[in-house]
Amino acid sequence: MRIVVFAPDESTRDIFRSVDRKGTVTLEYMHHDDIRTWVKSGHSADMLYLDVRELPARDCSRLLKRLAGSGSGAIAVIDIDNEIDDVGRLYFDGVCDYLNAHLCDEGLKPSRVEAALRYHHQVHHQPEISEESGHKGYEERTKKTGTRSRSDIPPDFPSIARAIPRLIPSSRDWSGVCEGEEYTFGLLYVGIDLDDAVRKDTRPELVRDSIEAFRSAVSEASSPYNGKLWFWKEQAGVVLFPFDGVNSDAVTGTIQLALRGMFWQAETRTNYLTEQYRLALHVGNIVFQQGGRRETLVSDTINYLFHLGSMHAGPGEFIATEPILSRCPEGFRHCFVPHDSFKGVKTWRMRRILRPE
Amino acid sequence: MRVSSRTRNLVVRALAASFDVHTMNQVVRLLVRDYDLHERTGFPESMPIPGRDAAKQIVTDLLEWNRLVELVQILAHISRAGLAGRPYRIAELQTLILAIEELGYQFEWSSCTFFEDSQRTRTRNWGVLEDGSTCLLTLLRIDVVGNSTLVREYPDDVIQRTYGDLRKMFREIIEERNGRVWNWEGDGATAAFYGGDTQLAATLCGFELIHQLFFYNALSCRLDSDLQVRCAIHQGPIEYHQHFERIKGPTMTTLVDIESRYCAPQAVCLSEMVYTGLNNALARWLAPVESHESMPLYQYTLRLGA
To answer: Does residue B183 share a domain with residue B34?
Structure first.
């Protein structure tokens, strides 16, 4: 279990002494000032505790609503000095537990945390929105809008991180990845839509050089997001993004790749052959190997990824499966619309980048 | 500029081998209007000047006036386009260019122009624009949308840090494409582009800024709403001055006009001068903008559809 505490100083640590002793709990302490950035970066945790000392009532309410709306975790309030007059109001703002001065003195018990979580799941569980009504209304509201607003986020967007089977985290960068070991990675399929562009008289050297230039561009664009172009075969390849179990730069890095196309064309790094490409993002386990051994790698995960990219993603589209998209930073959630499932896994599509009519 | 004797001798040799004295004089007059070799060398009009002596005098004078780099640019131009309708082969031109590049410049063949090597130095004038000289530049101007409201609504430290982020982002984007940030006013800035395909470079910078703000607003912005800018790009003759306040004229006025009157928030607005210089790959992302005077404008916004 992951618990994050937002407090003005470190004096709250004492409250969590019993919880801290449990080996299965990770506790992190941050200042109030970091809440906005933390939420925007797409972080999440099982429980979030907000220490309301030094927070004016209006700021407190605003922060609670922001935390509740982001779906970053279940929220509880710590009120060491019994400052809050209307405790009931906190529950309207999405809170699932309240610790007054007496409870803080006694210290928080692990059983109390578990009870709060159970309550949160009972009370704040969102009912399923039917495919037809929910999606249609959303599509109408967001067609060709230029301004982001809360209503842009689809109602059933996976804002709570989905469990990943057989999770083997490494680190957010490559420092935690060793060759020959199995890890969970963000996996990105990048495929060039070459077939329609190649004509009978297109020189093979031009095709080869164009693909090479495209690969170089993809590698360069992925690198700032810890992406590594790991595997390439004919006109498609795989970019790996390390995953620390909670966060990855995979979604942000892929959105950047989706937007780079117009620059590559303008700078003639790509041409009419490599203008259109498709992206498919998933998460799964592979044994990380460098060099020639990749060519002989047999992996269900890679097979699924290639099918997702070549058969499910359309020309020029960016498709992401729900397990990886549930790690999407809050600020990008409005960029995606629901898409059909593929082999039992729900997928989402990035909204199209509009050109003038 | 400190030039080695090896480089001086190289220029002297190239001049003497490529031109007769009369033509040498013509070449220098492309830089210095009333240059007179007889007057400069002291040789009477009735006496012919030896070629090598003429070349030496020219190099000495141009070095003193800090115009040697321009001379080599002119020689490169003459090697491609000739002089007064006559073709010339410039001796040791490639070696000359390499020698100047060793001084911290990069040569661009398409425009036959030297620029300072941005990896080594980065000056406001690319190391080549003289104060008071007029040249064709592409300018890019940005302004923060709703600055007055933001300054009222947020504490000073939040504004300073946010605008600091914008400033860093802007500078990196501009300098990546060999532009120069000429002025930062707190809530806006002006950048310039010189040499090469400046219309493309400036436009890509504008697009890049809009895209980077898209990521910044999604991931890092401290404000409750998006940080937005207006971005205008225009090209025209500019009289260059070291101090930005002295840079005025119709080009600058039009640029400010485009940004303040016609540019939408979070958009890049180009004048026709810039638009017509773009390749189709970029031009198709721009839509015409209605403007009240007969000044065609084109605009790009990052929009996501269904």
So the answer is: no
Q: What are phi and psi of A155, to 5 degrees?
A: -60, -30
How far apart are alpha carbons A313 and A319 in whole angstroms? 6
Low-confidence stretches of chain A (pLDDT beneath 70): 22-24, 40-42, 69-71, 121-151, 291-298
From CA B143, how far away is CA B231, in angstroms rounded?
7
Residue A350 β-bridge partners: A336
What pairs with residue A338 in β-bridges? A348
Strand ordering across the sheet containing A74-78:
A26-30, A2-6, A47-51, A74-78, A95-99
Question: For residues A254 and A321, what is the distance between their CA atoms, to the nearest angstrom?
Answer: 13
What's the CA gap between B73 and B109, in Å, rounded?
10
Interface of A with B (CB under 8 A): 36-37, 40-41, 139, 142-146, 148, 252, 255-256, 259, 262-263, 265-268, 329-332, 335, 337, 350-357
Give CA–CA dist B92/B17, Å, rounded: 9
Using a CB-CB distance cutoff of 8 angstroms, which residues of chain B are in contact with residue A353?
302-305
Q: CB-CB: which of B215, B226, B304 is closest to A354?
A: B304
Domains and CATH numbers, chain A: 2-124 (3.40.50.2300), 161-350 (3.30.70.1230)
- Cβ <8 Å between A329 and B218: yes
Residue B304 pLDDT > 90, yes or no? Answer: yes
Q: Summarize pLDDT for A225-255 with one digit per residue, the tens.
A: 999 999 898 899 999 999 988 888 999 999 9
Report the gap between the CA of B238 and the closest CA in chain A (Å).
27
Domain that holds residue B247: 134-301
ipTM above 0.90, yes or no: no
Contact A192, A214 (CB under 8 A): yes
